[in-house]
Amino acid sequence: MRMDLNNRIFVSIIMPTFNDMEFIGKSIDSVLNQTFRNFELLVVDDCSTDETKSYIEKRKNQDGRIKYLSNAKNSGAAVSRNLGVEVAQGELIAFIDSDDVWFENKLEKQIAFMMENNYLFTCTFYNKIDTNDNDLDTIITFPFETNYNDLLKNNCGNSTVIYNAKKLGKFYIENIKKRNDYLMWLKVIKKSSKLYCLDEVLSSHRLRQGSISSNKLDLVKYHWKVYREYEKINIFYSLYLTLFWIKKTILKRGKR
User: Fold this and answer.
1) What are phi and psi of 190, to 5 degrees?
2) Mean pLDDT of each 10-residue bin along the chain, 256 residues long
3) Sign (positive/negative) of CA torsion 166, 169, 172, 178?
4) Which of 70, 107, 141, 142 could cross-link 36 (Cys pair, CB 3.0–4.6 Å)?
5) Distance in Å from the first CA to the final CA of the chain
6) Which domain holds residue 245?
7) Are 173 and 127 contacting, i.e. CB atoms less than 8 angstroms apart?
């Protein structure tokens, strides 16, 4: 393994979940099967009403790198991510959604990319799969180098991100229902100055039935909320950014 990373770097992986028994096992397996081994997997349960707790407890007994955390009450992904960040012990913090999966060399390649170039905030390309794990022949790319203004017009894949908490510190987000991952990346890039992308597909984002076209107006509302309420961007530029996002994302998806 490049640079003997397992002996030098410890990573905290944060996985928020809520009633996701259908897919969480595959997501956990994709983490445990990583060629890079020196990590803790923090599964943060948002008070699931299915068998999530007992399942994670069982997996903990099989692999001590798994830790089970739970919100005091059902609170949403932002609160779950904050709890994971709070208890994370790793020099690096990575994120994965409980229905996404990683390629087995994802951590090894991305951490080497960071260490060899002294990058503090990174992402990768990713593809899309359906609920049966079929590749949908869709690859989501990202610019190699992105600054804050660039990131206002783009969003990296949540399950691809790693940042250096030892050098940048930890980042917490307000309790916003949607686009909370995007809000976190905007916080990180203000400290890191740049986001660097490894141009390899190392993660798969799972699309569920109806997820592409549902709640489009709701997503527009939350983009506007991020720009105006949290980033304090003036109304004219916020309008431009929101319209830009509509054209780039919603209309593009609608053509598929």
Assistant:
1) -65, -30
2) 73 96 96 97 95 94 96 92 97 96 98 97 96 93 96 94 98 90 96 98 87 60 91 95 81 51
3) negative
4) 107
5) 40
6) 210-256
7) no
